[in-house]
TrEMBL record:
<feature type="region of interest" description="Disordered">
    <location>
        <begin position="1"/>
        <end position="32"/>
    </location>
</feature>
<feature type="transmembrane region" description="Helical">
    <location>
        <begin position="104"/>
        <end position="124"/>
    </location>
</feature>
<feature type="transmembrane region" description="Helical">
    <location>
        <begin position="39"/>
        <end position="68"/>
    </location>
</feature>
<feature type="compositionally biased region" description="Polar residues">
    <location>
        <begin position="1"/>
        <end position="10"/>
    </location>
</feature>
<feature type="transmembrane region" description="Helical">
    <location>
        <begin position="228"/>
        <end position="247"/>
    </location>
</feature>
<feature type="transmembrane region" description="Helical">
    <location>
        <begin position="183"/>
        <end position="207"/>
    </location>
</feature>
<keyword id="KW-1003">Cell membrane</keyword>
<comment type="similarity">
    <text>Belongs to the binding-protein-dependent transport system permease family.</text>
</comment>
<feature type="domain" description="ABC transmembrane type-1">
    <location>
        <begin position="98"/>
        <end position="311"/>
    </location>
</feature>
<keyword id="KW-0472">Membrane</keyword>
<dbReference type="InterPro" id="IPR051393">
    <property type="entry name" value="ABC_transporter_permease"/>
</dbReference>
<keyword id="KW-0812">Transmembrane</keyword>
<keyword id="KW-1133">Transmembrane helix</keyword>
<dbReference type="InterPro" id="IPR035906">
    <property type="entry name" value="MetI-like_sf"/>
</dbReference>
<keyword id="KW-0813">Transport</keyword>
<feature type="transmembrane region" description="Helical">
    <location>
        <begin position="290"/>
        <end position="313"/>
    </location>
</feature>
<dbReference type="Pfam" id="PF00528">
    <property type="entry name" value="BPD_transp_1"/>
</dbReference>
Length: 326
């Protein structure tokens, strides 16, 4: 005769109870695999770690040291403390570079974002050839930062070039923008505004996330296009707008190639395109004052950090997140 079902159940429960730890004792930890997996992980990460230490962290630490030294790339650095910073604040060309950069950032960044948002609003509507228009408007962002485009831009805005002839035809005897200190900075602004494709794509992605039900309900309540844009579109895409403002502001502070090429390496005329990075390049590589250039680089880092902190502080007033509304 077989064992009764209840007896089999009791035996199973007894076996489980015998294997369970006694009351008041700590169960033994689960054994994990040895450090071989971690070693393999670090091995795969080693190219990135080496690149970070050799190309990012190492140069940053070295430049921080050079910022407090008199270093000309040929002789050993000599410690001078805050000498570079004192000379920097007293340098009129340094102050000019700060003014030119601030003017470029305050004019170029808002215009670029306004144009990107306007084109994104147009492309968000269903129309024939939509994919082609998106690619066409995005293309300048891929090639706009290249040296060749800066050379072409310089040729377009030179004396007796296409822009100059168009202005003459319209009765505006302004001349070429490149050789005029009053206009060459706006040539740089026009170039950066032309590269609005990247923020446009980000705006377009944000517009696609706005629920259509909100527009339909507002339209039923009698809200016109402007009220729907102001009270629905802008609040809903404010996180995307904040991201674009932050990213484009940081990029604007870093302008160098177009300013250097269009001024033919002089950052002029009359220091009209003497942006901060251009003056830093002149001090570090043309004048061999790497200590002074390192101090300038750290001042730029501090300035960008402060602007970023202000933007993050201000977002509490105008950026609306969906989680906060719940």
């Amino acid at each position: 005769m077989g064992t009764p079902p209840m007896t089999q159940l009791e035996d199973s429960v007894r076996q489980v109870a015998d294997k369970a730890p006694a009351a008041g004792t700590t169960p033994s930890p689960v054994r994990r695999r040895g450090g071989k997996d971690g070693l393999i992980g670090y091995l795969f990460m080693s190219p990135w770690i080496a690149g970070f230490l050799l190309l990012t962290a190492g140069p940053m630490v070295a430049s921080l040291y050079f910022a407090f030294t008199d270093y000309n790339l040929f002789d050993s650095p000599k410690w001078i403390g805050l000498g570079n910073f004192s000379e920097m604040f007293a340098d009129p060309r340094w102050r000019t570079s700060v003014e030119v950069t601030a003017k470029y950032v305050l004019i170029g960044t808002p215009l670029k974002l306004l144009l990107a948002l306007g084109v994104a609003l147009l492309l968000a509507q269903s129309r024939r050839g939509q994919a082609f228009y998106r690619a066409a408007f995005y293309a300048p962002s891929l090639v706009g930062a290249s040296v060749s485009v800066a050379i072409v831009w310089r040729a377009l805005f030179s004396d007796d070039a296409v822009v100059d002839r168009a202005q003459t035809f319209l009765g505006m005897d302004v001349g070429g923008w490149i050789g005029d200190p009053a206009w060459i900075l706006y040539c740089l602004v026009a170039l950066t505004v032309w590269q609005f494709g990247a923020p446009m794509v980000i705006f377009l992605a944000g517009l696609k996330q706005v629920p259509k039900e909100l527009y339909e309900a507002a339209q039923v309540d009698g809200a016109g296009p402007w009220r729907r844009f102001w009270h629905i579109t802008l609040p809903m895409i404010s996180p995307v707008m904040f991201f674009n403002v932050l990213l484009e502001t940081i990029h604007s502070f870093q302008i160098f190639g177009s300013a250097y090429i269009m001024s033919n390496g002089s950052c002029g005329p009359a220091d009209a395109t003497l942006v901060y990075t251009c003056y830093l390049y002149q001090q570090g590589f043309e004048n061999s004052r790497m200590g002074f250039a390192s101090a300038m680089a750290w001042m730029l880092l501090i300035a960008v950090g402060l602007v970023t902190a202000v933007l993050f502080w201000s977002q509490r007033r105008w950026v609306h997140y969906e989680e906060a509304a719940r």
